[in-house]
Amino acid sequence: MKSKLTISLLAALGWLLAAAPATAQVAEKKSLTLDGARQVIAAAMAEARAKNAPGGVIAVVDDGGNLMALERLDGTFAAGANISIGKARTAVLFKRPTRFFEELINSNGKGRTVMAALNDFTPLIGGVPVVVDGQVVGGVGVSGAASAQQDEELAIAGANALANPMGGPALPVTYFDKDQVAAAFAKGAVLVGEEPGRNYMVHASRREAAGMAEVHTLDTDIIYVLGGTATFVTGGTVVDAKTTAPNEIRGASLRDGESRQLVKGDVIIVPNGTPHWFQEVKAPFTYYVVKVR
Questions:
Q1: Are residues 112 and 221 in the same domain?
Q2: In the chain, helix, strand, coil percent, each to 5?
Q3: Is residue 109 part of a domain?
Q4: In the chain, N or C terminus with fewer CB closer than 10 Å?
Q5: Same structural domain for residues 130 and 197?
Q6: In this structure, is the dihedral angle defined by the CA atoms of residues 82, 248, 237 and 260, taken in order, positive or negative?
């Protein structure tokens, strides 16, 4: 007669063997986060600016087709939001770019036009799945740009922002030797400018005198002082404020702001939307600015 210990061991072994197949059937699933959705939109918007797109609505959905984030550029027609959401949902639920379906339906009259009657189905170019490590984690749809082709280009730029997060940076490494950096600071220059897929810029800045009050509605400024001194004012109200460029406001000065004396080695971070002003400058005042969007 088997001992109770042997019976217990056999029972435990049987449980483990029975559980093994179930465990093997469970796979790790990646999910799109809100931050990831915002990165997709930021990359698509950067592409829109680079292409001077006249408008557009960018929508990002999760792997179930649920809306996570949406951005509507100025001048876009009202129906653009619903169309972009539909494109994103179609791309993720069918795991294909929506170009496939529009071309299928329009293929010399031989397409499955009955597909157009499906719920949540928008067979219009401009929807792309968002894929991370081989898994479809969401979809991005764009509507209202200059053309269907441009809709798709913006959507692809957005999807590519997350396409290879574990395989290294999508953009190449950028290097400036000391002579290039010195030349940039000698006159004040942009080292790294705005580019699709990049959410930051780097300026080699130089000031010889005080400037205008500024507000960047999208960009956060990270300032590192290399030389000289300056009285720097943050907050308060911009005097004689005017919009000088998209998302950029300038004015004569600031009222009721907080003053600081900046010297070599100081770092100050100015969040987007915060008024700031170089009120007084002891030249030459040189500083790095990293603009993060």
A1: no
A2: 30, 35, 35
A3: yes
A4: N
A5: no
A6: positive
Q: Tell me the one-letter amino acid at 243.
A: T
Distance (Å, rounded) from C-alpha 60 to C-alpha 67? 6
Which residue range is the domain that position 104 belongs to? 34-160
> What are 199-244's pLDDT values in tens digits?
899 999 999 999 999 999 989 999 999 999 999 999 999 999 999 9
**CA-to-CA distance for 47 and 159, rounded, in angstroms?**
12
**pLDDT: which is higher, 170 or 73:** 73
132 vs 68, more confident: 68
pLDDT at 20 over 80: no
3-class DSSP state for residue 135? strand
* Domain end marker among 100, 134, 160: 160
Between helix 98-105 and helix 80-94 the angle, nearest 10°, is 100
**What confidence score (pLDDT) does residue 280 get?**
97
Q: Which residue has the tokens 């010297």?
A: 263
What are the residues whose beta carbons fall under 8 Å from the beta carbon of 136, sequence distance 6 or more? Answer: 63, 92, 95, 129, 130
- Kindly indicate the confidence band of residue 73, based on its pLDDT and cuts at 50, 70 and 90: confident
Determine which helix (DSSP H) or strand (DSSP E) holds 22, and give its type and residue range.
Answer: helix 4-24
